[in-house]
Structures are given as C-alpha cells and as structure tokens.
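Supplementary Methods. Inverse-folding protocol.

Structures were first reduced to a discrete structure-token string of length 201. This string, shown here, constituted the complete conditioning input.
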C-alpha cells in the first residue's frame, strides 16, 4: 500500500501545546491531502530546556516520519525539525516559520525543498542570536543567508498586501497565510536562486 504523506506540525518554545501558533495550520494541510496531520507536542520549554532536550525530541519525532512527509515548524520547532532531519528523518520538504536557527544553517541532504518564512522586524530570534552556547539563531528575522539552492526565503512583511510582522505574525492573518504555507508542500521552487518569491495559493 502506497504511503500517504503526513504533515508534522512542531510548535515553538513557551507554548504548552502549540495550539496558538502552529496547530491552526492543520485544516490547510488537510485540504491539500495531508491527513491526518501529525501534531508533535513536546510541551512547554524555556530557553535552556531547548539546549538539553531538543535532540531527545528530535529522536522521538524521527521515529514517526516516513519518506515524503513534510515538516512544519515554528521557532524552536524548526530546530527540532532540523535535528530530526540530521538524524535521518526522511522529510521531503521543511516549512520553517520564524525559525530559531542560524542564518547559515546546513540542512540534511535528503530534504528536497526548504521554505523560510521570516519577519525583519521581529525581535525574538534576534535576542536568541546572542545567547551563548545555544543552538538558536536569528533566521526568523534575517532569513536564510547560505548558498543552499533548495532554500527559498519568504519575507512576510513585503511586498504582500497581507503583510504581517513579528514572531507569530502569520497566525494573525490565517485566511491568507494558511493556504500560502500549506501550498509550499506541493510547490518546489521554480527558480531556486529567487529567495523572495511572490506566493499565490
């Protein structure tokens, strides 16, 4: 029987169950055929909990991922996704919302497409950038700045009519951004060199 790909939703730090900033995306992925959507809720975590437990959570996540699945993360959830992929989780696509990752993160080779939604005015990941001995970075503010052609940046503040700002901005305009985010699961970048594409549903 052919595997039906799943979308794995991974929330960020300071969020006990992900419902505020990531679980709202489930209906949009279900509409794209990713059903059931898998919520990976690791519970509340603080700044230093991520240092000690992200790898453990990534190992647990890896066990539930099948080839062709999509990983969708917010903030610290993006780091959990990245580590899970490093450990061999066979994600086809990663969709990263305001990721708490270094701008020049190296992504695992099995991933085909990576979409980074970032907001230049947000301060949460900017602060994270300066935490010593911490895995977090400020990709959520500055976007990806490496040379991996699989990565496409989406600046949610410009030039869209539905521009939003902040670390959780896309969740404030769900009707527009939900379909845009879910559409990435089916849309490989036409031009990998274009790091700021205009997305349409």
């Amino acid at each position: 029987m052919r595997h039906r790909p799943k979308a794995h939703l991974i929330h960020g730090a300071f969020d006990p169950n992900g419902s505020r900033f990531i679980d709202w995306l489930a209906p949009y992925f279900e509409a794209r055929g990713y059903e059931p959507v898998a919520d990976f809720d690791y519970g509340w975590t603080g700044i230093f909990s991520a240092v000690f437990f992200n790898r453990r959570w990534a190992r647990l996540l890896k066990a539930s991922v099948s080839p062709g699945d999509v990983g969708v993360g917010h903030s610290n959830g993006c780091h959990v996704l990245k580590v899970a992929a490093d450990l061999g989780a066979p994600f086809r696509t990663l969709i990263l919302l305001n990721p708490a990752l270094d701008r020049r993160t190296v992504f695992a080779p099995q991933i085909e497409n990576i979409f980074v939604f970032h907001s230049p005015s947000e301060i949460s990941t900017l602060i994270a950038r300066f935490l010593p001995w911490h895995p977090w970075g400020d990709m959520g503010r500055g976007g990806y700045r490496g040379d991996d052609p699989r990565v496409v940046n989406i600046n949610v503040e410009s030039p869209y009519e539905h521009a939003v700002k902040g670390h959780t901005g896309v969740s404030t305009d769900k009707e527009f951004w939900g379909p845009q985010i879910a559409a990435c699961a089916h849309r490989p970048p036409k031009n990998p060199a274009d790091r700021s594409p205009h997305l349409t549903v």
